[in-house]
Design a protein that fits this description.
127 residues; mainly alpha; elongated; 0% strand
Length: 127
């Protein structure tokens, strides 16, 4: 049984969805209508591939976008538990194994934070 998910919409997503909504045909209730004019879009692979082709991007899969999103969050310092929830993972272990590929610069920054904290602590003890 799938768990119910909360999907927080950020301001950029909301702005883009609002723009898309305003360009749809009069009387169409869907933000992503089917090309046939009946119903809504179900499979995003073909439209995504067309967009990637227009952008000149090759060998990009839908899952690559998800992985990039998670990596951006991790590199920005977002808590792994929040990333887990945003991705809808069942556990943090899944998130850690699959997505949170921290860049070396992010790890270096974290190490510097630890060094500064230790240095300040030692100064406080010695002073």
């Amino acid at each position: 049984m799938k768990m119910e998910r909360f999907d927080p919409q950020n301001s950029l997503a909301l702005e883009l969805l609002t723009q898309l909504h305003s360009t749809r045909d009069e009387g169409c209730p869907w933000v992503f209508p089917a090309r046939t004019g009946k119903g809504h879009l179900v499979d995003l692979r073909k439209p995504l591939q067309r967009a990637l082709d227009r952008a000149g991007l090759q060998d990009v899969r839908t899952h690559d976008l998800r992985r990039s999103y998670a990596s951006l969050l991790a590199n920005a310092g977002v808590d792994i538990y929040q990333i887990k929830d945003l991705l809808g993972h069942s556990s943090v272990a899944v998130t850690q194994q699959s997505y949170a590929h921290l860049q070396q610069s992010t790890l270096r920054t974290a190490s510097e934070v630890a060094a500064r904290t230790l240095e300040e602590t030692l100064r406080g003890v010695a002073g």
